[in-house]
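Encode chain A's predicted structure.
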Amino acid sequence: MHIILYRNIFKQWCSYSYQFSRSNRFFIDKNYQIIERNLHDKTLKNIYDLFYFGGERSELEVNFCRFVLLHLYLYAYSVPAADFVFDLNLAAAQKSHQQAFEDLIGQHGLSIDLSGTTDSILYSSLEAGRSAELVEEIALIAGGIIDAAPSPEGRRFGNKALAEFLEEHDRYNHYTKFIRSVLIKTNERSDASKAELMEAERARDAFRAAHDTAVIQRDAAEQANQAAQAERAEAERAREELRQAHENAVLQRDAAEQARAAVQNAYVEGERTRDELRRSLEAALIQRDAAEKGQEAERVEAERTQTALRQAHEAALAQRDAAVQAAQAETEEAREALRRVQDVARAQREATDRARASAETARADAEEAHEELRRARQSAAPQPASPADPEAPGGTESEQDPPRAVESTARGG
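Encoded structure for chain A:
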């Protein structure tokens, strides 16, 4: 089973344009790739040659023309081979169209629910005056493409799609003269907010790098402190060795009173060595104290740097949040204005449908009245004379006048 999903081409373009304005090029690029990879097709080759990049048209204008002509070409040539054409715009307005498609799918053992189908439209980024010029050019070229379709059904559907495209384009430009500029400015402000956010993130990264540098400096100070502690431990070990040597000297003095002079000399030498070691220890302690003071100063400076970085980061985040909230508020106002315009358009369409229904009812009443008049005329027409009554053709005036009166009355009615 072949199913074609149809949507008003201009509304579909607005969806493409919106995605393109949000830096999503997927749909626009796919449209371009379809044409570029099928240049063996004469019609697509002509579209490719007529609307090319690098000329007087912008990239968005070229994509717009290619998009519309490609879809009109595909609809005109593919619709005759389809088993069902699901009109998204019609389904949003008529539940019967939804039900018909759901029943068709149900015949193949599948179940779908289209009750949430809506007829929505986003916005086109094309400038209004330039868009009107491009549409006139598209209409001329599209007429030739549709007329070349081999099937009458395809030509009818292609002309229908073209007419609905032109109608929706004119309606859109009429109702969005002011709203279009508001939405474009809103998007520009949103992009500016994104740029500010990126700048804030870059500043945050720079702050983080400075913080990492401070951490490295702190680690270096800790290593220096550890080295000073190792030197102090070495001095303590030397002092312990000196103490042991002194004890040995005292034992030697007590054990050898006779060698007192020699021991005394050794003792004096030991005292001198001890004094040197003490001076070395005191110098090491002074160095340790200086290292600790330097470490404390570096720690205070690192904390001060971290506090400044945190305050700057919080300020950048606050600015970003304020900019994003302002952009969201403006976007919501623009969307609300667009919804009000759509409600007005929907009300006008409903009034038009009711007027059309009233006209159809009036026409049916008129046809019924006409039929009654025709039957009255037939019943009032003079009957042919009987052959058995020779005086019938020459009847009196009073016998012939009443039918004419009836006929006159019927005509007057």
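The chain has eleven helices and two strands.
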